[in-house]
Fold these 2 entries.
Entry 1:
Amino acid sequence: GITSLLANGVYAAAYPLHDGDYEGENVEFNDRKLLYEEWACYGVFYKYQPIDLVRKYFGEKIGLYFAWLGVYTQMLIPASIVGIIVFLYGCATVDENIPSMEMCDQRQNITMCPLCDKTCSYWKMSSACATARASHLFDNPATVFFSVFMALWGKQGLSGKNIGDDPRFIAEYEARVLEKSLKKESKNKETDKVKLTWRDRFPAYLTNLVSIIFMIAVTFAIVLGVIIYRISMAAALAMNSSPSVRSNIRVTVTATAVIINLVVIILLDEVYGCIARWLTKIEVPKTEKSFEERLIFKAFLLKFVNSYTPIFYVAFFKGRFVGRPGDYVYIFRSFRMEECAPGGCLMELCIQLSIIMLGKQLIQNNLFEIGIPKMKKLIRYLKLKRQSPPDHEECVKRKQRYEVDYNLEPFAGLTPEYMEMIIQFGFVTLFVASFPLAPLFALLNNIIEIRLDAKKFVTELRRPVAVRAKDIGIWYNILRGIGKLAVIINAFVISFTSDFIPRLVYLYMYSKNGTMHGFVNHTLSSFNVSDFQNGTAPNDPLDLGYEVQICRYKDYREPPWSENKYDISKDFWAVLAARLAFVIVFQNLVMFMSDFVDWVIPDIPKDISQQIHKEKVLMVELFMREEQDKQQLLETWMEKERQKEEPPCNHHNPKACPDSLSGPAPSHAYHGGVL
Amino acid sequence: GITSLLANGVYAAAYPLHDGDYEGENVEFNDRKLLYEEWACYGVFYKYQPIDLVRKYFGEKIGLYFAWLGVYTQMLIPASIVGIIVFLYGCATVDENIPSMEMCDQRQNITMCPLCDKTCSYWKMSSACATARASHLFDNPATVFFSVFMALWGKQGLSGKNIGDDPRFIAEYEARVLEKSLKKESKNKETDKVKLTWRDRFPAYLTNLVSIIFMIAVTFAIVLGVIIYRISMAAALAMNSSPSVRSNIRVTVTATAVIINLVVIILLDEVYGCIARWLTKIEVPKTEKSFEERLIFKAFLLKFVNSYTPIFYVAFFKGRFVGRPGDYVYIFRSFRMEECAPGGCLMELCIQLSIIMLGKQLIQNNLFEIGIPKMKKLIRYLKLKRQSPPDHEECVKRKQRYEVDYNLEPFAGLTPEYMEMIIQFGFVTLFVASFPLAPLFALLNNIIEIRLDAKKFVTELRRPVAVRAKDIGIWYNILRGIGKLAVIINAFVISFTSDFIPRLVYLYMYSKNGTMHGFVNHTLSSFNVSDFQNGTAPNDPLDLGYEVQICRYKDYREPPWSENKYDISKDFWAVLAARLAFVIVFQNLVMFMSDFVDWVIPDIPKDISQQIHKEKVLMVELFMREEQDKQQLLETWMEKERQKEEPPCNHHNPKACPDSLSGPAPSHAYHGGVL
């Protein structure tokens, strides 16, 4: 077939032609032009997409992608509105937030223990005021409500019913299946065969497994490297003389580290994409479909790990294994594990998340997607020019459609588009508790994204071969998976990363007057500076201008004057229990609520099945009617047959008269003809 | 229609007739007889049921019930095998179980605080030896594994794929839907209308809500009553002089209380059944289906609460709000809350569960199901006899089939059968962690149950009108719900009711030499008897033969000699945190595993859809073929028509010759007739 001819290089390429040019004054009207005007320009971002036309022109699969993208973007609107409200609530309440007020209070000067050995000195709590205030923006009760909302949004939102929003697809699919099924059946058999003969391809699988594990290890190693960079950077800056530098060590370190992370992520994304493709090739899957699914699975796994590892680190591991003053934990015997800001790690998580998400979107999606194709186009154009410098002008004139299209990019599949959106969906749902504005940014990005992809498909790509599709396939399962993961991760973020639970515990277990006054003091343990291991005490203890006996650090431990000093205290266990209890409540609440929503809102699958039935019925009726007509005609004809052997009918022997004398017209005419 | 005639009492009853008698020597062979011999007798309990025949004779719905019952019973086999193994493991390890050994050890005589005020005196730990040893049978590591297993079993087991085990149903259903759909469509519309006009029936809904809440309150009140009975009974027995009585107070009290519970449950079950029916009647649902569903929902809710409330109490509330010596919690100012046995509440939970489950099965299912119908039959028989004493003998001889069947019970629907099984499924899954033998007893019960129901349907009921059914309907959702509930409940039973977590915590946090030695001592707090509130101290403190300064009680509290004595201790919070962590791990582990199983084992739905497609294809092919045949015949006929106007065909003008001279025979005959 054509594929083999292409493989043998007999043909350079095979592709359907575009309807015609999409711009220029003397261009007759065509679908492509219509799409370009009605769909592929930013001016119409507020309009619904002409999905039918897209499907008609590009085929069902691509139509489905854009339909899904549209639905997803639409769903982001409520999410981002709620997110904005939550953020504004944070801004509004930042001034009556007692903990941050206490931290900023100069009068109660709490002396904190040094953040690094020797070089760092003691520091005043109030110097972390800004962080504390900022972290309140994301670490307030509204966030809890928001993450419940988003967990439901993630679990319910994309659970099929929105994909099904455009029932025409399903209907059409079901109708076409009737003709197509036999082929499908055989294909299914094939895939079965593939499953059966998996032993033959064991080495390939082994290679896959090994290399995937290796690449995940690489990712982890890089993240570790960045951590070490951060630690040493902090130590270095701490030695810096100018107070301005030292005052915002944390910000600079975090920011630079995150940017490094970002660059690494973007580079590795490309690398991993290629590797995944290569790995899938050596697997030699039998059908196109299984190839795509295996590729997607690998690519997703790698890119997911790549994108989220640094965020997971900040959310759940940073500052947990610090140890305590006088007995710190060291990695490689020299680097002391880094702590979180006094305002909690949530702030850093937020910075991490926002920079990576926005950076990824801006650089990867938009710059790459606009820049690279344009460049490629230019290169091809120049090459062409070099080939035919003389009669270039008129050759352009005389160009045939297929020649023009040949200069366009070939269609490379929807996987990158989907992948981009899925990773974004992850950013929006997984850690939303720490960054309520994520949906908003996602929304803005997608509004551009839709038109960008549209432009690409209309103007820069060869027309893809129309492919039939029932739904978004494996992506749907991945979305479901992320939705489930989001519930548990948000539960952990709120209970372990944010200070929500400690505040509650303080309020109901320890607070004297039922207010948050004294909370900050309660979260800090005391350390007697005389207990520093030798060589770890700060070099200039008088940096703050007075001598320090007791410094404070953020942990729940016994004070120096208790009999078993620096042991984990009762409060620690109480808070831990509260955190875990919250996780259980949160998770089961969300699960119950989403089941309830499922139960209240009858979801599409039912409708689909009804659709199927309806179609069956219609089809059957149709057949029945046709059959009846035929039957009638046949009967009338058979009758005539009978009459040939019978005597002509008259009132003498009425029994011989065929009942159907008052039959359909033709039989009459014919009857008359005989007499 | 017939229904209105029945309503107006024109007819006494309308029912399909049985095929004939099922026993007696001179009976011609018939399906009923066959069913009676091959299906409805205990002799064939090991055989598969002849589901096809059942479906053919009783209709699809009843066939489906028996198919489901069969599948469920089959599934109980592995469950009960594992359960037996777990139980045997418990029996085998009871002697090297250090905690129970320590409790039974006479040498270290631990003096426990009195179990009730005044009348009860101090008692020796070793006197609870039996309980401790017994509780190990169910409270051992194997139980944890078992409850994971059962949680998966419950979640996966009945998730559709086993119901679908008998694909004939689905296939047949799908095929019949084609003819039936139109009616269905209209019915759907009706139900929609019902949904719309819910406002009109608001009072009915209100009545429902109020009375359901009321009945649930009644259930709770009864349980509370039983608790008070238990408390006062214990106090009364404690005053008893004979040591033999006092040694096994706990057993007697628990046993009697449980039996009271059991009786109440069985009685209320009947009452609630009627009430649910009445409530659904006043709701006036529009379709038969919605009536059934509403009834089932209500009945299930009430019976569920009724059956499980006492068990929930023992599992999660008993002994949690006891207070501490010197500061006990009292209800109604006079009854001190009861504590759990030193071996943990799991033992009592096990007793509760086993007695209620077995008692319910034996009394309700079998006695009621065999006894009541037999009695009714007898009564009807006697009544009949009284009506026609003289020529009774020959009247029996001359009896027509419909007369014979009239004496049988009318078919009352499958709801009770299903309900019984669902409640049993609840017993098997919800608290399996505390009673590994539950599946075994369920299995034994069901093996009898199947044949019992079969007998009933074949011999004692009028032949029911065949009803078409796709699946077990709302029952499936209820099963799913119980499956989900089972996961979380088992997690809580293991972590909070059993001593599994405290043991682990002791082993890894406190144990000196990495063994369980000293665990019992660690779980007991000390109380200084001088701190008893006045009037609560035991009357004869010297009951044990020596004077007591310090008595022990099961709780994690500060000792009398610490500065804040009797406060909740650090250990308490540590253990609590561990328990909660376990719940999270357990729940998510099971969820993940069941998703994984889903992913690995492709479930039936796919097969169904393929089935549907296959059928569509076949149908279409069939129609096509028929059409073609007809088309052919028509063409030949049309041809003949044409020939009428045409000149007869000969070799002069061959173009006029119809190609189909070699056509079907009739056309030839006809042709000849014309010439």
Entry 2:
Amino acid sequence: MPDAHTNSTSSNQFGAGVDLHLELAGSRRRAGLTDALRDAVRQGRLTPGTRLPASRALAADLGVSRSTVTECYSQLIAEGWLTAQQGSGTRVSQRANPRSTTVETQASRVLRRPTHGLLPGAADFAEFPRTQWLAAARRALITAPHSAFGYGDPLGRIELRAALADYLSRVRGVYAEPERIVICSGFHHGLTLVAQALKEQGAQAIAVEAYGLSLYRALLNDVGLRIPPLVVDENGARTCDLGAMRDVSAVLLTPAHQFPTGVALSPQRRASVLDWARTTDGLILEDDYDGEFRYDRKPIGALQGLDPDRVLYFGTASKSLAPALRVAWIVVPKNLLSLIAEAKGRVETVSALEQLTLAEFITSGAFDRHVRSRRQSYRRRRDDLVTALKQTAPTVRVTGMAAGLQAVLELPQGTESWVLQAAANKGLMVSGMGEFRHPMLDRHFTAQDALVVNYSAVSDSAWEGALHALCSVMP
Amino acid sequence: MPDAHTNSTSSNQFGAGVDLHLELAGSRRRAGLTDALRDAVRQGRLTPGTRLPASRALAADLGVSRSTVTECYSQLIAEGWLTAQQGSGTRVSQRANPRSTTVETQASRVLRRPTHGLLPGAADFAEFPRTQWLAAARRALITAPHSAFGYGDPLGRIELRAALADYLSRVRGVYAEPERIVICSGFHHGLTLVAQALKEQGAQAIAVEAYGLSLYRALLNDVGLRIPPLVVDENGARTCDLGAMRDVSAVLLTPAHQFPTGVALSPQRRASVLDWARTTDGLILEDDYDGEFRYDRKPIGALQGLDPDRVLYFGTASKSLAPALRVAWIVVPKNLLSLIAEAKGRVETVSALEQLTLAEFITSGAFDRHVRSRRQSYRRRRDDLVTALKQTAPTVRVTGMAAGLQAVLELPQGTESWVLQAAANKGLMVSGMGEFRHPMLDRHFTAQDALVVNYSAVSDSAWEGALHALCSVMP
């Protein structure tokens, strides 16, 4: 309202004329005045102790009713911005803190991105099926019962658990009744729940593969568990060594496609880990992070199918769809359900709307179609990589190629850090095998120097450049 | 394929004829055979040790190529379902466990619902704005950058934090820069993070209101914190008693609308808690669970605005939209950000797509419109309740009515449990004040017997019946 703007009295009194002008429009006059005064105090234009004009005077200044001003004052007194003492009128509260004016700029939070990123965890997010996902979300929202909007089953929506039970038994050979499936927000969350549950049961140690993500080793340590390493060779983790380990109540494995070496757990090793679990009453935690992606033949079925009461199966939508969904699942033995549900009770569950959308996405067949098309595209990437390396670096051996999203490029011993540095200089971010090494691994165990290349990490348009940069730094 | 179906040899050999018939179609012949054999083992129709026919014989039986059979066998050997010894041919593995056939029925998991539920936490979920939410989801999905589908900022999407910063300062008087806001999945999750962070800092005790949800008292206990009670009277929690408490580093309050009593924290009590925080370097945890819903005048602004460096502000979408979204937010002092981010690192973040949808829902104005319409409808409910009680139970005093989603019906001393029982007999679920009482509250402190009625808990169609049932059990 212009008269507030042009009214020098009120402007001088508060130095808040502009705010008043901005705020005091139409029906929101009282609200506008209240906000204007609050801002004036917050921004330090009205300092603690300052006496405010009498309601009648201010009302006249601003051309609003006196009751508007008195209501506004009492509101701010109720909130603690102003105080009213008999005789001394209305003043700015001594307790009202002017706000600090230091505000981080957006810019300061942005990280500089490398030119080419081929690190684990990334994926070609340009390929997220936005249209099909939205269609699934629409169908899910339209058909959801009212009750779906309340507090849900801590184990997850039954619709999603049923859809996953079908999918997992069909595609991964998992023995999964809906009642055994627990929905969680990512593998990290799922492993946290299971680790807490096992700790609750008195577990002291969980054996882990000697090569893997340090993030998960740290997680298990945080829960208070020891994590003795299992050496990984061309047949996968040496599960045959489990028998010799003390107080180990579970083992965390990536049987279908060891991360990061890419080898599959051999039939003998599968047999021996099952034997270990049965003779020692141990548990197997099967991390099936990218089981959908196998190129040489049908994916190797999940270990869980062989003994659903000894194996906890972990799957995730992060690799097949996108990490942004924060949806993953665990198939657990019946006798562990209540413990895991209790652990989950300490943190909240996944959005019911998203769970219903994913259920719809799976049952409609869109998930199968998406995975198939991603598999084809990743297979092309893998072939590009092999061909390009044959031409430019024929001495470099490429392994771990039968499946998944990453390949291992074996390097001459002692050259790993040198190659990583050369890559960094070209703005190429790749991982060296060394960064996945378990700290407790025997010093005398000399690992193969190698790069771990996630060829699914970039968009099609960026792939060629990344591949070129990669070849250019090979010895 | 019919020939497999009609082929008695193969059917008899495995008792799996039907499966084979179902599976062995078109291009999926090998996959079909593999699945058929796996199922036959899993279901115990092929028992451990059973010798399988030679690949040539089976290929002839089924009318498929021999390579199809050998590939299928080697696949199942790799998975551990079958074993191959020199001379003894291919056998079912001794380790393959037939599946248990006990499957919980859906029915056994369904709980019987009461006829009328007026318990805290429930809401009129029929009113969730499905269409507008879907429209926001569409806009969010279409405009999201590719990077949004990756692993996100553990503190939450900047788009949502910016939208909330505007909304909270406009509607709740919160001083909220986006950089101070942490997105979490529900108040429970947020309080867990903060409690862990304070514990990390060496906190021993957090004072809580003498009446509140036991769930949150248990949460704080789980983290290892003592929870001394603050008596609640007609001016809210007696924050003036904080000075006398030992080793209390924070206090959890519901200042705008105490839960469950419904009183607002008086200006004096607001002042004294701020003084306590400043003199003892303490922190105030402000649970603003239903601050949007106030009927007598503009909502009382948040305490946080008075001292953003001493107050952690908790808000949630559970009351204003739906618990199913699992989205809430904390506005925290800068010096606590890293600790809380670290605590959050242990559990996963909220879906980025849902965060972007909520950001869109807020910035488009749909959130304001939804809250306004809910407020009107809840106000009508409150008026219905008052009118109905005036007529049927004039002696019952109704309090805590100025705001929020629940009302307190004061009962003659000693009648609370009797009334609750009478209500239960009529299928009416309401809470008694007793269930919110802090266990450590002084025995000599006699509380007012009362019902806590969540009048937002049912749909419009069910409201009249619930109200009638409620009136009928009043003394």
